[in-house]
Amino acid sequence: MKSFRKELWFETKTRREFVHITDQVQRAVHDSGVREGLCLVNAMHITASVFINDNERGLHGDYEHWLEKLAPHAPTEQYRHNDSGEDNADAHMKRQIMGREVVVAITEGELDLGPWESIFYGEFDGRRRKRALIKIIGE
Amino acid sequence: MKSFRKELWFETKTRREFVHITDQVQRAVHDSGVREGLCLVNAMHITASVFINDNERGLHGDYEHWLEKLAPHAPTEQYRHNDSGEDNADAHMKRQIMGREVVVAITEGELDLGPWESIFYGEFDGRRRKRALIKIIGE
Amino acid sequence: MKSFRKELWFETKTRREFVHITDQVQRAVHDSGVREGLCLVNAMHITASVFINDNERGLHGDYEHWLEKLAPHAPTEQYRHNDSGEDNADAHMKRQIMGREVVVAITEGELDLGPWESIFYGEFDGRRRKRALIKIIGE
Questions:
Q1: CATH fold of B2-138, please?
Q2: Could you report the per-residue pLDDT of B74-114, keeping only the tens digit for each?
Q3: How close is the nearest chain B Cα to the Cα of C63, in Å?
Q4: In what order do the strands lie in the sheet with C101-107?
């Protein structure tokens, strides 16, 4: 069994942002030498997500608007988590809806994705250095 | 290490539908010959889910109603994704709540599920041929 | 390839509760002898979650309040699932938002978690014996 580990680092300019990372994950799969296996990609921070959906700008705006409706940032005093001086309680909720991680099959040395599946790092409390983890196991 | 791959194909008659696939996944586990390992099952489309919950018709109706409340289909013009001529932005959201994938343990050659755990393909934009992926690794 | 299986049992005193299980999962990783691999932790019940987020009491109260807003327990008659005499339809929904499972990388014999990542069992219909599954594969 082979295993491979790589961190991806991000520092978004805005509080919320979706970063397309399919190519970086695919490169890690190639670097791992794994032909058949599983590839885990997870946010290492609890106010961010890794998810798979469409690489379409309109949809990303819709997500932004929709998540804000389901878990509004303001007023920040509505959340007890923010009593400690934080203002990111909403980000902890948005991340639960979008998910922490994806597990993707590796087949014949490639990510085994459907035609429209793209992998994203979803940032909900950015403007600082944060990272995602890629872990690959297989043969 | 063994690995096994199989696609399940669906063409639902209605836009939204939950298809019970536990037996098909269990059959794939048997076909794989894996006794100890992990079984990934994921939608290969970004307007569909694979999830685990109750095989109970009343609950499925409740999900339908609840998801429609959290991410309404209409009016379709509320979503920028639909500006391109699509009408399925809501399906991209429903799928995030229900999740893309499940990872299930394989123990002694069987899916290691709790007593009420059933695996479903959740369709949110059907009436066309779509698929899920089963990938099994282990020994 | 090595594999390891362990069940964690819970009986919460209240209907809803978050139980911190990172240490128990870490111990299972040590017991497995796996140095490089993947660790799946999933609820074996469909009204409970395993998720990763902050070990912060204020946030947990926020989650409780937020989930109750997105999927209210009462009035219980609003859900067809409850027609069968159950009163836990809302728990099946809360669990979908928080997720069934997490998959965590194992690197050099330890859970490969970010600095604030903590693993929780999320109970939404407790006061009875229920369990989560830990399944580890690797080398």
A1: Jelly Rolls (2.60.120)
A2: 999 999 999 989 999 999 999 999 999 999 999 999 999 99
A3: 15
A4: C2-10, C130-138, C37-43, C101-107, C110-111
